[in-house]
Amino acid sequence: MSIVPPYQTTLKMIEVLLCDDHKIFRDGIRATLAGVDDVCIIAEAETGIECLERMKEVLPDVVLLDISMPEMDGIECLQQIKLLYPFVKVIALTQFDEKRFIKQMMKFGADGYILKSTSKRELLLALNQVMKNRTYLAEAADNALQEIVSEDPVSQLFPNLSTRERQIIKMLCHEHNTKQIAQQLEISFHTVESHRSNIFKKVGVSNLAGLVRWAVNNDLD
Q1: Which parts of the chain are beta strand (E)?
Q2: How far is CA 89 from the centre of its chain?
Q3: N or C: which end of the chain has fewer CB within 10 A?
């Protein structure tokens, strides 16, 4: 019978919940981490709602959380995770290094931010850094964050939004539909739809509920 010397320690397995609405991406992450001894994906989810449901069943150390998802986007899901499980680390995943995504996710408590195109080395680095209670930002995201810090505070709230776009945001928040907005502003239905699509892209949300939450958080409702 062998006795483990008292100075030897066993590395804790990092248990991960992976939330992304694209199965092919989840399969890729699972394959990437398959040979890593101290990291294990213990659950997967396709939406923010499913992510919260799975967290009732398993309690991960880290959630790898996609930002853009149907039903409940990553920003709302992040807020719920930090409210219910403040000790769980969350690393935001996105295809983009745009400032609006980084700013919102870090504002609501994300512990890390990496691009979906990241390498295996950086993914493992991010996991290990957040487990040490350190914030990890991908290099591209870190550069964008530095730009945010140097910006005028007012411009941070309204990322490249025109006066018309701000007007439409307020009307959407007050439950006006596209037809009503077109009539009141005396513009075409298609013009309103175009503005709405551009607003979603600029703000970094995927649906009206996400836009309303963003507007409320930034006093633009």
Answers
A1: 14-19, 39-45, 62-66, 89-94, 112-115, 136-137
A2: 13
A3: N
Number of helical (H) and strand (E) elements in the chain, helices listed first = 11, 6
Q: What is the pLDDT of residues 122-177, one digit of tens each?
A: 999 999 999 988 888 886 665 555 555 444 444 444 466 788 888 899 898 888 89
Q: What are phi and psi of 79, to 5 degrees?
A: -60, -40
The conformation of residue 186, written as its DSSP 8-state character, comes to T
Position of tokens 């290094």?
97
Cβ-Cβ contacts under 8 Å for 182 (sequence gap 6 or more) = 188, 189, 191, 192
Query: Rounded distance, CA 77 to CA 84, Å?
Result: 11
Please state, in angstroms and rounded to a whole number, the distance separating the CA atoms of residues 45 and 47: 6
Residues written for the chain: 221
